[in-house]
Amino acid sequence: MIIPRRSGMPKFVTPPEEVNWEELIELDKKYFLRPISTAKEYSPLPIARTEGPYLITSENVKILDFMSVLHCANAGAYHPKIAQAIKEYADHFGYLYEGGFLEQMRPKVCKFLIEEAFKGDMARVGFGNSGSEAVEYALMIARVYTGKPYVVTRWYDYHGWTAGAVANTIIPYLRDLAITPTKPGEVPEIKTPVGGIVPYTAIAPPPHCYRCPIGHTYPDCKDRKGMLACINVLKELILAHQPYVAAVITEVVQGSCGVFAPPPEYNPQLRQITKELGVLWIDDEVICGFGRTGPWFGYQNWDIKPDIVTFAKGVTGSHIPVGGVAISPELAKWFDERKWWHASTFASHPLGMAAAYAALTVYKEEKLIPDHAKKIGKRLEEGLKGIKDRHKSVGNVSGMGLIWGIELVKNKETKEPIFPQDRFYFWHEEAVKIPSKVVAVKCIERRLLVSTFAANNITLMPTLVVTEDEVDRAIDILDKAIEEVDKMV
Ligand SMILES: Cc1ncc(COP(=O)(O)O)c(C=O)c1O
Predict the structure, then answer these.
(1) Does residue 287 line the site of ligand 1, with CB under 6 A?
(2) Which of 313, 318, 325, 453 to mutate to test the pocket of ligand 1 (most atoms within 8 A of CB)?
(3) Is the beta carbon of 296 within 6 A of some atom in ligand 1?
(4) Counting atoms of ligand 1 from 1, which one is nearest the CA of 256?
């Protein structure tokens, strides 16, 4: 039987003007297994389509997205060239397994990543389907290579939700959620460090200078050799667990638990100490990669090179789920000489590779990375500094490039947080009391989307396709929204 290929295919998508959103919302509420909100709280925003840096609702309202949807749509939630590349490749492939077969996109993606994005710092790339899987892959590589079990992570780090990744995610409510679901109004009981499910994790202090968790004040925290106090603690922690430490995993700018950037010395000193102690550095670039901090990867802001890099989100502009790892030339040589095991059905999926190649080409040809990202980053930084000066409730702004956090406080002098649980709170419907939510609601009323993963911290991560005018508009909207919090303090 001859199956007609492209003609006479059923149409799966209802034309936008005929969509019954009320009915769809009801169906969704009835059947979708919802994370994060209770059934009562659940109220998704119906989006009819996406366009560059805008989400367009079912009522045709255009929302300027300063969250890159989930810190991932670096080229905008719809980029025509990426969409076109996927459509064209879908005419040739529905699926192919990476282990035994080769299509034309993967080698091109690998070449681009190694030669242009990593500039030769890394030698091999491998793929998976998400950031969490990328982290699992990196942990496996570190443990296989060193033959050691321990990984050092940091307070406030987010590395994903699969077993290995969540073991290195140190946000109490997130780790605790796995075992202690909460009802509205309940604060999850915190079990530290979640007993038996997290072996081989050691937790270092983060470089959160605004509220140093080990009681220091930057730059007075430096010792006679100029080493930061938090780096000295990290060093002691590694020594205390030696000879069993495989790696330290960090982000160059902590992203998911309310952004804060480290002081300039932090990442170079982290690299220095890991080298001195013979421990690998896994640089988790799931958020910081692909222009988020300006250059292709966050580590490129300093004269340092990781041993292992994880990436996801921006590699395809999030048009198709792809994650992956890259390893240094030294590790590549070791792995080239051995047989080892990693398997994932969908890794290097042809459509993912087509999306990745298109996204990387868009970043390069449209000069989004590094030129536009750096220009927009400067504009955003200037705007945010103005916001800090103008508002009595803004204690700090911290970040770099296109990843920023605004810290809301009761009192600028004492830095007292407005919402006492601060970063240790999993919000419920009483969100009206939470400063970051107050701002987010006011922003969405004026058609700006910002993210609010921590109670007192507004996170801004615009797409790389925003213009300077759009940055100015966002700053203006934020300015007005933060006035609401000024009234609360
Ligand atoms: C730094 C970092 N690593 C890993 C992950 C996990 O990625 P995914 O949600 O794709 O599994 C995230 C997700 O936000 C992340 O921010």
Answers:
(1) yes
(2) 313
(3) no
(4) 16
Structure tokens at 57: 């609702």
* Same-domain status, 341 and 445: no
Q: Is the pLDDT of residue 13 over 60?
A: yes
Atom in ligand 1 nearest the alpha carbon of residue 323: 10
Nearest residue to 297 (alpha-carbon basis) of 249, 356, 251: 251
Claim to verify: residue 346 and residue 373 sit in the same structural domain: no
pTM, two decimal places: 0.94
Domain limit, last residue, from 365, 394, 422 = 365
Residues whose CB falls within 8 Å of the CB of residue 350, separated by 6 or more in sequence, listed in order: 89, 92, 93, 95, 96, 103, 105
CA 152 to chain centroid, in Å, comes to 19
Last residue of a domain, one of 365, 392, 426: 365
- The CB of 397 under 6 Å from ligand 1? The reply is no
Same domain, 330 and 394: no
Q: Which of 82-91, 172-181, 241-250, 268-277 has the lowest mean pLDDT?
A: 172-181
50 forms bridges with which residues in the sheet?
55
> With a 6 A CB cut-off, is 312 part of the ligand 1 pocket?
yes
Q: Is residue 77 part of a domain?
A: no
- Residues 302-336 pLDDT 10s: 999 999 999 999 999 999 999 999 999 999 999 99
CATH of residue 260's domain is 3.40.640.10
**Counting atoms of ligand 1 from 1, which one is nearest the CA of 312?**
10
Is position 244 within any domain?
A: yes
pLDDT score recorded for residue 177: 53
To test the ligand 1 pocket, which listed residue (171, 249, 256) has its Cβ within 8 A of the most ligand atoms? 256
d(CA 322, CA 336): 23
Residues 398 and 309 in one domain: no
Q: Is residue 282 part of a domain?
A: yes
For the chain, how many structural domains are there in total? 2
Q: Which amino acid is at 439?
A: V
Q: Is 135's C-beta closer than 6 angstroms to any atom of ligand 1?
A: yes
The CATH number of residue 416's host domain is 3.90.1150.10
Question: Is position 25 within any domain?
Answer: no
Task: Provide, rounded to the nearest whole percent, the portion of the chain with pLDDT above 90.
Answer: 80
At a CB cut-off of 8 Å and minimum separation 6, what does 49 contact? Answer: 16, 56, 78
> Does residue 377 share a domain with residue 319?
no
Ligand 1 close to Cβ of residue 131 (< 6 A): yes
- pLDDT of 164 reads 87
**325 Cβ below 6 A of ligand 1:** no
Domain ranges, residue 96: 85-365
Q: Is the CB of 251 under 6 A from ligand 1?
A: yes
C-alpha closest to that of 461 among 261, 255, 196: 255
Burial class (CB in 10 A: 0-12, 13-18, 19+), 258: buried
- Percent of the chain scored above 70 by pLDDT? 91
Q: Are residues 414 and 343 in the same domain?
A: no
Q: Which numbered atom of ligand 1 lies nearest the CA of 251?
A: 1
Do 196 and 266 sit in the same domain of this protein? yes
Give yes or no: residues 389 and 289 share one domain.
no
